[in-house]
Design brief:
The protein is α+β, with helices and mostly antiparallel strands and 323 residues long. It folds into 2 domains: 4-123, no CATH class; 126-315, no CATH class. 25% of the residues lie in helices and 32% in strands. The protein has 8 helices and 20 strands.
Length: 323
């Protein structure tokens, strides 16, 4: 099969992808972030990503698994694909165990995105399980981190109802640049269950039909605001927790509390050699120290009156984080 190379990027980080035509066309969704006119970072090392299809070798693990091979390279595997990640050269070799192309929800996509996260971490970029929005005037970013069921999406949607600008619902990448932080988007789609959507009437007109395999509606965020792929400036971290109270409240977190929650929201922190883990933890510590993180005790008011609830959330943020 003829193989060709596609020059892509993750924002300003070059990513050179080699593979068959069908594989490359299907991969485009994965690296759409980064406008064509945007200047590449001259100091960033290019990530080399090579795609193959072939038979499965070792028995498939029951879930995503990350190991080290005899040469010290990461091996990311699940039932559908395997990626060999060499962090010294930033080269990733992916082998899908079938001839089917990469799709957004495929097993191969999960392996590729995990491998890319490991390579990006070498360039001081970390992924959080978090939603992200900009203030209505785009002067600051709010990153809402937490596990499924914590109220992360509920908080993010309430902020959208208020007029905040969407950046992402389930993952945000952060990196420190000089004396400030950058928030970088990856996939920006928001997915809402019918129950969640019923609490946000102003967002209903921006949602498509129910996606049967997901049991959720996809929110067309491009209809809400012009796309914002990266933001550099003041960042506030919120960690929501669902309560039965009548009104939402918040309180400042200690640095230790914030580091603990950030480690949960950044699962790759436990992956790698001791120095890689220490470097990851150092980034999380700086994030905890510099973004005035707060607990958000999420009450019924946010679902009953999202705009008013969001106004109370924003009114309690003091934006004293380093900018």
């Amino acid at each position: 099969m003829t193989r060709s190379t596609l020059e892509l990027r993750f924002h300003d980080v070059p990513v050179r992808v080699t593979g068959g035509t069908a594989e490359l066309e299907a991969l485009g969704w994965l690296l759409l972030t980064g406008k064509h006119g945007e200047r590449l970072d001259a100091t960033a090392r290019a990530i080399e990503l090579e795609l193959h299809s072939g038979p499965q070798g070792l028995p498939a693990p029951p879930a995503l698994r990350i190991d080290l091979d005899a040469r010290g390279r990461f091996v990311v595997r699940d039932a559908g694909a395997e990626a060999i990640v060499d962090l010294e050269t930033l080269r990733i070799e992916v082998r899908a165990f079938s001839e089917s192309v990469v799709t957004q929800r495929s097993s191969t996509a999960t392996v590729i995105t995990t491998a890319l996260q490991l390579a990006l971490r070498e360039q001081e970029t970390i992924r959080l399980h978090a939603g992200a929005v900009l203030l209505p005037d785009r002067s600051g970013a709010i990153v809402v981190a937490g596990d499924s069921g914590s109220g992360k999406t509920t908080t993010t949607l309430a902020l959208l109802e208020y007029g905040c600008v969407p950046m992402g619902d389930d993952q945000a990448f952060l990196r420190e640049r000089g004396d400030t932080w950058e928030v970088l988007t990856a996939e920006r789609s928001f997915r809402l269950t019918p129950e969640t959507l019923s609490a946000y009437p102003n967002l209903k007109r921006h949602c498509g039909e129910l996606v049967p395999e997901l049991g959720k509606h996809e929110l067309r965020v491009e209809e809400i605001a012009e796309s914002v792929e990266r933001f550099r400036g003041p960042v506030r971290l919120l960690f929501p927790r669902l309560t039965q109270s009548a009104e939402t409240s918040s309180r400042t977190m200690s640095t230790a509390e914030a580091i603990g929650e950030l480690m949960v929201a950044s699962p790759l922190v436990t992956v790698g050699a001791p120095e890689q883990i220490r470097r990851h933890v150092r980034l999380l510590r700086r994030l905890a120290e510099e973004t005035s993180p707060a607990w958000l005790d999420l009450a019924r008011d946010v679902l009953q009156q999202p705009r008013a609830g969001a106004a109370r959330i924003l009114g309690r943020l003091d934006w004293t984080a380093r900018s």
